[in-house]
Design brief:
Elements: E1 13-17, H1 22-33, E2 37-42, H2 45-57, E3 62-66, H3 72-86, E4 91-94, H4 109-130, E5 140-144, H5 157-177, E6 183-189, H6 196-201, H7 205-213, H8 223-234, E7 244-248, H9 252-255, H10 257-260
Parallel strand pairs: 1-2, 1-4, 2-3, 4-5, 5-6, 6-7
Helix pairs in contact: 1-8, 3-4, 4-5
Bound molecules: coenzyme A.
Length: 269
């Protein structure tokens, strides 16, 4: 049962990149259930349509756009259309992300760039294009980061670099936009079950056990546990909070890089 009041976000508009699956979708669905109109952005038109229809079938308010956050013009168009249909944006989530496990020695420059572009440039594009369309004062911009921003993880150099960039970008916006009443924050989830990231990083039972063991709580988190933090950050209860990162990781970050190693002995020598 949710601890948040029914109708908490009634009348609010929330825009989600990476909103058609995984953590982005998990948060969007909870916002919609709390009364928000949610706008889901993802690259794949079919996936986007299915995600929106799933929410509409539940009687929730949802629409979507198929576009790539790496294309400034496309994300700008999606934001402008949202604004013209629903007015100023209350919440903007930068949740689109890329990931694949690979050591630097086997990663092409283009592979590194793909993740930097989706995560860092995509987050910049989203917030840059949203700026003039945000509710001021009152808007909240939330980026989905990861423990990768705070510690090196073998086979994840591209993601570590990208998430560190996302966090500093988001903190900088807290400085630049705070005067207009816009708050920003990052959520750094640990291993969250049922996500594309876990499917990629822990494809076997052994890897899943390793992931669980890396958390002092001994398990993966749920999308609802990440969504709870997002709801808190966008609520009045967080009105004096900006420019911070909250870890929702079961303490995984405390365990250190050794435990987060993806489990290939060759990388622990
Ligand atoms: N190991 C090494 N390199 C890889 C790789 C892997 N497992 N997967 C992709 N790459 C490389 C490709 O070889 C390519 O480089 P190249 O042109 O030098 O060969 C580069 O990454 C871009 O791949 P491409 O598939 O063309 O990019 P894309 O823009 O379609 O996809 C990715 C971006 C690679 C990040 C893809 O994994 C993706 O779409 N991810 C989104 C979903 C996701 O990762 N979710 C989890 C978030 S935690």
């Amino acid at each position: 049962m949710s601890v948040f009041t029914e109708g908490l976000f009634a009348g609010k508009t929330a825009f989600f990149t990476g909103g058609t699956s995984g953590i982005g979708y998990g948060i969007a669905a909870r916002f919609a259930a709390l009364g928000a109109r949610v706008v889901l952005v993802g690259r794949n038109e079919e996936k986007m349509t299915a995600a929106v229809e799933g929410l509409l079938r539940r009687g929730l308010r949802a629409s979507g756009h198929a576009c790539d956050v790496r294309q400034y013009g496309a994300i700008e168009e999606a934001l402008k259309q949202t604004h013209s249909e629903h007015g100023p944006l209350d919440f903007v989530f930068a949740a689109a992300a890329g990931n694949f496990p690979a050591p630097v020695s086997a990663m092409s420059a283009n592979g590194f760039k793909a993740v930097m572009d989706i995560d860092v440039l995509g987050t910049f594009n989203t917030y840059r294009a949203a700026y003039s369309l945000l509710r001021k004062p009152g808007a909240v911009c939330v980026s989905i980061s990861a423990n990768h921003a705070h510690q090196p993880i073998a086979q994840q150099a591209h993601v570590c670099a990208a998430k560190a960039g996302v966090e500093l970008l988001t903190q900088t916006l807290a400085l630049e936009w705070g005067g207009e009443g816009v708050r920003t924050a990052c959520i750094a989830p640990g291993p969250i079950d049922g996500t594309e990231g876990i499917r990629r990083l822990a494809p076997t039972e052994e890897a899943r056990r390793w992931m669980c063991a890396s958390s002092p709580l001994g398990r993966m988190g749920t999308m609802d546990e990440v969504a709870d933090m997002a709801i808190f950050l966008c609520s009045e209860a967080a009105s004096y909070i900006t420019g911070v990162t909250f870890r929702v990781d079961g303490g995984t970050g405390l365990a250190g890089a050794r435990l987060l190693d993806l489990g290939d002995g060759a990388r622990r020598r």
